[in-house]
Amino acid sequence: MADDPFLLFDHWYAEARDSEPNDPNAMALATVDAAGQPSLRMVLLKGHGRDGFVFYTNRGSRKADDLAAQPRAALLFHWKSLRRQVRIEGPVDIVGDDESDAYFATRSRDSQLGAWASEQSRPLDARATFEARFEEMKARFDGQDVPRPPFWGGYRVTPERLEFWQDRAHRLHERRLFLPAAGGGWDEGFLYP
Fold first, then answer.
1. How far is 5 from 186, CA to CA, in rounded Å?
2. 66 in helix, strand or coil?
3. Distant-in-sequence, close-in-space partners of 34: CB < 8 Å, separation ≥ 6
């Protein structure tokens, strides 16, 4: 096993892409609001590397409001087919416009239009209202590229703690913990299951 948490994540993630039937990039994102109320939801990992783990959302969503108030988060990857989990905790920064634009351009047209049509996490009187807004966006951008909405973009979680959990028989699981080392790099240890 790798002693570098990013190489280990890359290895496990590659195996998950081969074995998970749906969304191997799905991760639970935990945030807290200004009052300390926790919130948890699933999002999709859209980029990762030594600088962090990236997801995208509407910047008016509940998760974005939470991150504006408390710019820290926890992530959890659970790959049931491999009987593995990865937990990541750290501060969160907004991804720059160029990177957000580049990712947005890779999305399907309907997903791009949906980003414009949705007031994510805000009350909706009826599904028909959202569908009408989507049709309005189709008409608005007919025959042209759909630009990234100014209220939509990425967030990067920079790891300060990474834990790799591997299921073992009789609940004798293996838990490997990586924390930043004083001189750079990572200190590795184990946790009781």
1. 8
2. helix
3. 69, 70
pLDDT tens readout for residues 57-70: 999 999 999 999 99
C-alpha dihedral (100, 73, 124, 59), degrees to nearest 10: -30
pLDDT greater than 90 at residue 3: no
In a domain, 168, yes or no: yes
> Is pTM, for the whole model, over 0.85?
yes
- If you search the block for the tokens 């990572």, which residue do you land on? 186
- In this structure, is residue 78 part of a structural domain? yes
Q: How many domains does the chain have?
A: 1
Beta bridge partners of 30: 40, 74
* Structural domain of 82: 5-95+150-191
**Residue 130 domain-assigned?**
no
pLDDT value at position 2? 61
Which position has the higher pLDDT, 171 or 13?
13
Around Cβ 14, how many Cβ atoms within 10 Å? 11
Nearest C-alpha neighbor of 51 from the set 148, 154, 151: 154
Name the residues annotated as catalytic.
171
Residue 150 has a CB neighbour count (10 Å cut-off) of 8
186 lies in a domain?
yes
Residues whose CB falls within 8 Å of the CB of residue 44, separated by 6 or more in sequence, listed in order: 23, 25, 26, 27, 55
Phi and psi dihedrals of 28, rounded to 5?
-80, 135
